[in-house]
Design goal:
The structure is a homodimer of 293-residue chains. By secondary structure, chain A is an alpha+beta fold. Chain A is 26% helix and 30% strand. At the A-B interface, strand 11 and helix 9 of A face strand 11 and helix 9 of B.
């Protein structure tokens, strides 16, 4: 038992926030019978302009049936997105393709530019790493502060390492690469990363649907390891006692939205949050409440 | 990476089996607007006999509204169950009360005899402990063989420690007590148990609905610790290399049904199963696919 169950600590708000959406404002995006995304009904006129690629009714959008291979869909939808990028409807183009399927395990039905994931309400896949140090007095966790020039969440707190999972890469490859780029963790040490499941997000967020599946990893680091950012994404790193991390998650909005779930998952797995917590089952279920898989 | 991803290994069958049900054969059991259980439609005539306690229609059963406190419901439903026990419809009476609510975190709406949980299709709460040893060559796990005189799953393989969570007990109390009774683990060692979430079951099983929420715990044991059963529930214990446990789960039906999920959850958390496994997302989601919480 510990003092992390203080009634003032509000950890459950993150599972609520990351699983709240009003789908009446969105139209499902289909490929055949499969719903692959959710688009704002306010955007339907955009899709109508490209009738060789998309079919549109009041309450749904679909990729036209003559586009009957992943390659054909990827190419046709990609051309539309290039056009939309020119019109300023897609920002932060990355030249990175995300896989789109109902389930991560399945073969993708198409690939789309990463920057368009929320515009189409498709699921983004990422890897997130909890870097921790086991000191004699307890657990400590490394927290990064994102650089202030980042397009998303500038200056917010983040994991030691995190990255998007683009098509054709394995989660493991991405973890090993990002360990080096984001925190200067050499491969010999990164090989000790341990996958332990995932958390999910399915919410409306600034008028779009945000859906994430974040594969979670832990890495126990030696006390004398100092992370060093290589790619400019991180301003600095701080090693915090776990009770300070609990405080940051429970009582502040300083941590990048979806990272809160990954950190709460760590609290659950390391017994920092226990079944005696008054909202335990709600929190634990909310970590993988779904929306994509 | 490891060789546990052999394509012949079938771990996903357990999440499928524990989440398969045909609810058209069952009627929901209500308290007010809340569904607390599922009863076989074949049993509706039993409920009709007790019209002061239960209301019955073709497709649903409810606890009568005049029973408007948890104490009143517990008493009235309890009297019906005593009657049913005399008629041979409830077997293995335990004199242990289970809490009934939609969510573990909520106040119970009534308490019912443990032996009647499946008869009413209510959620059972339990604690399950993975006892493991970290040897230089890798992880090993303690597996118990249930005594052949057990009413349920005689002779099947089980966790080192497991137990039902009766009303008024905390999960932690039950873990500490069962550690001693089932495996002779002294409290000083049991205090190192680490809670790490839960797994769920929602299936039809021999004509009834089985719903479980099993709080999961890990305990790393010293290499020289030998478990010893105190209460006659366990015939013997065996310490197995983790690859043999993977084999038992994937290729045999020797492990007690719901324990398979708890062990697979351990595989996920310890990186024995990784995102590169062809059914990873299906397996991980299936561990908490719900039904109760």
């Amino acid at each position: 038992m510990n003092d992390f169950h203080h009634p003032e600590y509000n950890l459950k708000r993150w599972v609520q926030r990351c699983n709240t959406r009003d789908l009446t404002r969105f139209a499902p995006l289909h490929i055949g019978d499969t719903v692959i995304g959710w688009v704002p009904k306010d955007h339907l006129s955009r899709f109508r302009e490209h009738h060789t690629v998309f079919g549109v009714m009041d309450a749904e959008v679909w990729v036209q049936g003559h586009l009957n291979t992943p390659a054909a869909r990827t190419s046709a939808v990609g051309e539309v997105l290039v056009e939309w990028e020119k019109r300023g409807w897609v920002s932060g183009w990355r030249d990175e393709l995300y896989r789109v399927s109902t389930r991560f395990d399945d073969e993708p039905l198409l690939l789309v530019e990463r920057a368009a994931a929320q515009l189409l309400g498709i699921c983004s896949y990422g890897v997130h790493l909890n870097g921790f140090v086991q000191k004699p007095e307890g657990l400590w966790m490394w927290i990064a502060r994102r650089a202030k020039d980042r397009p998303h969440y500038p200056g917010y707190l983040d994991h030691l390492v995190a990255g998007g999972l683009t098509a054709g890469q394995s989660a493991w490859e991405v973890v090993i690469r990002e360990c080096w780029e984001e925190a200067g963790i050499p491969e010999s040490l990164a090989q000790r990363c341990r996958p332990n499941g995932f958390v999910t997000v399915f919410m409306d967020h600034y008028g779009l649907i945000k859906r994430d599946l974040l594969f979670t990893y832990d890495l126990e680091l030696p006390e004398d390891f100092e992370p060093e950012n290589m790619d400019g994404e991180v301003e600095d790193f701080e090693l915090l006692p776990i009770k300070d991390v609990v405080h940051l998650v429970a009582e502040t909005d300083e941590i990048k939205l979806n990272c809160n779930l990954v950190i709460i998952d760590f609290f659950v797995r390391y017994g920092i949050l226990t079944p005696e917590h008054p909202h335990y089952s709600k929190i634990v279920l909310g970590l993988r409440a779904g929306g994509c898989a």
